[in-house]
Amino acid sequence: GAAKSRKQEELDEDEGVMEARIEEQLAKGGGEGTMTTKQEASSAFAKSKSLQEQREFLPVFDVKDELESVIRENQIVVVVGETGSGKTTQMTQYMHEWGFTRHGRVGCTQPRRVAAMSVAQRVAEEMECAVGTKCGYAIRFEDMTSAETVIKYMTDGVLLRETLRDDDLDSYSCVIMDEAHERSLHTDVLFGVLRGVVARRRDFRLIVTSATLNASKFAQFFGSAPIFLIP
Question: Domain Helicase ATP-binding: where (predicted)?
Answer without folding.
Answer: 68-231
